[in-house]
Amino acid sequence: MRLLLNILWIVFGGGFIIALEYVLGGLLLCLTLVGIPFGVQCFKLAGLGLLPFGKDIVDAPGGNPIGCVLNVFWLVFAGIWIFLSHIGLALGLAVTLIGIPFAIQHIKLALLALAPFGKRVRTP
Predict the structure, then answer these.
(1) Res 25: pLDDT
(2) Contact in structure between 76 and 53 (CB atoms under 8 Å)
């Protein structure tokens, strides 16, 4: 079931475009030394954005204060806009009954986009 939903997500839910945007953003951020931690988070979001079904987001053990500071920078410069784009896509998909599972995945991505540092993506 997860395989079918992930294939439908890539085709109809915007998964390929979202993953491509995150990868390009991550590559651009990794060009600078300061942007590398933010680029790594973009790659994490790209992986989840490409195949979100069957994956959960959990808190990483032993959160550190540096991650909190990085989350603040992320939120101010990118997180709010990414959050709003995923919420907009979720609202558009939630209009139809078939789009509701995809809308739920966009909500999951939106919440991760607010504060990606200190989170892990795991496959149960």
Answers:
(1) 92
(2) no
